[in-house]
Amino acid sequence: MTQVQWQGVFPALTTKFTAAxxxxxxxxxxxxxxxxDAGVHGLIILGSLGENSxxxxxxxxxxxxxxxxxxxxxxxxxxxIAESSTRDAREFAVAAEEAGTDGFxxxxxxxxxxxxxxxxTFLHDVAAVTSRPIMLYNNPIAYGTxxxxxxxxxxxxxPRFEAIKESAADTRRFPEIRRRxxxxxxxxxxxxxxxxxxxxxxxxxxxxxxxVAFPRETVRIWELCQAGxxxxxxxxxxxxxxxxHLDIGPKFVQQIKLVEALMxxxxxxxxxxxxxxxxxxxxxxxxxxxxxxxQRPVV
Amino acid sequence: MTQVQWQGVFPALTTKFTAAxxxxxxxxxxxxxxxxDAGVHGLIILGSLGENSxxxxxxxxxxxxxxxxxxxxxxxxxxxIAESSTRDAREFAVAAEEAGTDGFxxxxxxxxxxxxxxxxTFLHDVAAVTSRPIMLYNNPIAYGTxxxxxxxxxxxxxPRFEAIKESAADTRRFPEIRRRxxxxxxxxxxxxxxxxxxxxxxxxxxxxxxxVAFPRETVRIWELCQAGxxxxxxxxxxxxxxxxHLDIGPKFVQQIKLVEALMxxxxxxxxxxxxxxxxxxxxxxxxxxxxxxxQRPVV
Amino acid sequence: MTQVQWQGVFPALTTKFTAAxxxxxxxxxxxxxxxxDAGVHGLIILGSLGENSxxxxxxxxxxxxxxxxxxxxxxxxxxxIAESSTRDAREFAVAAEEAGTDGFxxxxxxxxxxxxxxxxTFLHDVAAVTSRPIMLYNNPIAYGTxxxxxxxxxxxxxPRFEAIKESAADTRRFPEIRRRxxxxxxxxxxxxxxxxxxxxxxxxxxxxxxxVAFPRETVRIWELCQAGxxxxxxxxxxxxxxxxHLDIGPKFVQQIKLVEALMxxxxxxxxxxxxxxxxxxxxxxxxxxxxxxxQRPVV
Amino acid sequence: MTQVQWQGVFPALTTKFTAAxxxxxxxxxxxxxxxxDAGVHGLIILGSLGENSxxxxxxxxxxxxxxxxxxxxxxxxxxxIAESSTRDAREFAVAAEEAGTDGFxxxxxxxxxxxxxxxxTFLHDVAAVTSRPIMLYNNPIAYGTxxxxxxxxxxxxxPRFEAIKESAADTRRFPEIRRRxxxxxxxxxxxxxxxxxxxxxxxxxxxxxxxVAFPRETVRIWELCQAGxxxxxxxxxxxxxxxxHLDIGPKFVQQIKLVEALMxxxxxxxxxxxxxxxxxxxxxxxxxxxxxxxQRPVV
Lengths: 299, 299, 299, 299
Description:
4 copies of one chain form a homotetramer. Chain A is built from 12 helices and 8 strands. By secondary structure, chain A is α/β, with parallel strands linked by helices. Chain A has an 8-stranded parallel sheet with strand order 1-8-7-6-5-4-3-2. In chain A, helix 4 links the parallel strand 4 and strand 5 (134-138). The mean pLDDT of chain A is 97. Chain A binds chain B through residues 21, 53-56, 84-88, 109-115, 117-119, 121-122, 125, 250-251, 271-275, 278, and chain B through 21, 53-56, 84-88, 108-115, 117-119, 121-122, 125, 250-251, 271-275, 278.
């Protein structure tokens, strides 16, 4: 296996639905083009933002196949695994690898607050059925289970695990992981509105949300930070922040999809039990977007 | 539709697995007999204690069919609905009704922290596809979403909703629901180790956990409380409490299944990502059980 | 030392202030009379409800002296110790004993989240300077530090500690303390709106809040529970509950003082940084009180 | 009033005690010299790290007088106000100004979880009695009350409030305050182990803890960040981090004082209810310090 070199901006793509609540492949295709043109560095499908929890196994596999066959200009395709049983997670990993995914983003078990022993067993058991590289995804706020720097140190022995998406919203995790295992893992920021801080303490990548509507700005911030041009990065970031905050909270899917719709690069349609935003909620998002567009810098 | 009369002790049955990780139907049958002999008043399948999150749709339906056909001596069969998408929840409700369930225990959406509007929409949308009575199940500690007394007041208009299993572990909920809608709902305690308190403030039923190993004691406590014999009830309850505490915490399934195994009425086998208890964890449970058996009162 | 026999209803008295923000002794005297006439069983001064944190050392001592000299018809006077430094707590204990208090209610250190070793050391160090009986007060919700049943088991060796006021709002604590040390401590409920549940699991006393405005009803509920007449108790308790809820939350002092004022047995005046309720907040309390008075049962 | 220009590293000084539990003035004097020699930019006394909650009013005033008279090479002396009653806070502010403090660090009320209206009233009421500039101190983790960016926007009208010490441990607060009121306030990081991130998002100062033992390193990190040399800053910061983590948690005072003692610049003595670290706790700190010293870079 060649060592993967994941870094940069990896959009967590939304799943577009038709009026009949089926996946809208045409819209997915247009969106892929839009992201590629902006210079993103990888693609993540079926994540939280992709409404993973409402997709059937068949739909998930269809997504993998679609992206695997699509022209991606060399970008890695990363497929999210978020399942409640070890059996389902393994079966999906095998099927997605066959369908052509380049790698995985792997979450701890859904719906069960597994302890350390159970969580690590689960992660190893899923990794065992694939030869693809895996980005471990830590999001204790949304999913309950917390992968600590100590856990990552233990997981470092498994060569499948190449990267970490850190969404604990605690920037201290980045230096703490590095202290334990150096540069063993490619560290990705997973929370849009603390990205600048994550880069300051050494993140090399950004699994981004608002990128789906504003890919150029997202990529530019990452580039400036990598170049050590933090003051310029902050200027752009400060402009972007009110939008980046929309990546936070239970309704981040609805909020980001509304921004996509308003920017003409997607639809606000979500799948139940999610409902579209109320008028008041939508108006707030529209206001934030309008304010941002008024002052949008040239990138 | 005749008004249902749910009250009393309703065991939340565990799902027994064979060594090959398939459902152990023979064991399920023996266990059903054991519960019926002890005088329980209803049967709940596929709950949290039944490892709902690791069962496939086909397995869940097979469970419903099995219990629907079983001799239940007139006891109502209640099937748990715990799904991530509205579509899956509705499809399962329809299939389970066809398969012969008498009613449902319905949870808010899994994996998505829906707001009030979304939660209520979900509950009504699922109720709309069935003619069976529904017990609403509130467990914000395990599942994040909280159904408040105000929410239940709004849900009172839907005649499908007959009962409430309250697992917020806040006994104040019982009088608060009654204050809003009187005796509109049959109120069930859903937390083993505050059952006595729940009966003190008016619960008429108990969706119980340790009942799977100690059904006679569980039924007796309920009977004494209904008869206003609180001091006698407390004596038995105090004896039972160290065991009832095993119904609490992330590993309540493993703990209760171990007690079943040690009592010869089930197996400790759980399905991954759950793992069986470590030796230290198991020893603690064994000690609690041994202490309880030493002082077991005659019921 | 004679064994104390604390049980029954112990009001946590409010501290009345004049327009000039001094203690209103006349009002305190009238209030004492009102409580005694209703048949309460003990008196607690300088508690949270007594605005302890805003009183100077001199004012606190003046309160002790006032109540020590007052005709109390044999009821025990219990003085709250809530200090930030061990030195201050000890000095106050010595002074209050000299001033004539019959006993103490003792909180863990204020403003410092002491660990178990520090908390127990503090409690023993304060107890060491007095010969009076002490009620330990556990309120992790308001004060951060939690005294667990295990802690109380360790504290049982110290003969100064006679009673426990449990305000963890977790009724499980009562049977758990009894399991460890039997009837070593007189157990008091410290949360008005779970009092009935506390009595169901064995509390023998009630450090009460709304009693300051409704002493007869409070005493009656306690008496009915002691007599095992739980159904009658629940009827009265259900009526009382909307008022008892006012004992909860950051503004319980303002809420209870407003009820006192509206009932003509006190004033709504609080000391800064507390401010009197806003109009909206006050209206809510007035409505709750009006509704309750409309249906007030004869006791 | 001249506009103050607070920025840079402001140590939160510990209070040194003698064996007889009195303030150790000689030790305070030596420590002041040590800090001045390292090039810090301001001095804060009587903070949380200074064991404010265990000092008497007389001791606090003696501290102010001592530092007011000391040779401080032009550095501003900032005195912490952390009181439970508005009256005490105002009286102390007046006395400390008379005693010669240059400014204040002001906390919301202690021991009472005031709401927004009460908190803002308290802060304005205290500010009203002094002509000195004030640094508002937000630490919801330790003290419960949270001053949000919206609150700071409201407080911007009061010219007394010059600076903010942000200890919410949420770096998002910095850009959010700037968005609302631009550079109205000098923004200080108040949490040692997220300092680098705070500077990345625009903090101009650091109310520091470990600085009391490592002032040169602390100052150097700040200087590098101000110069935009984030990569060099990160190298030094990564070395410092295990020590900086000692600024976190309930025992940060004991931990930092132990480091001071081991470095020969202070004593580990704390005042009760705080107890010195247990042997196990101390060993952990000693190990962290030994590891750091082994790799200590030349600054």
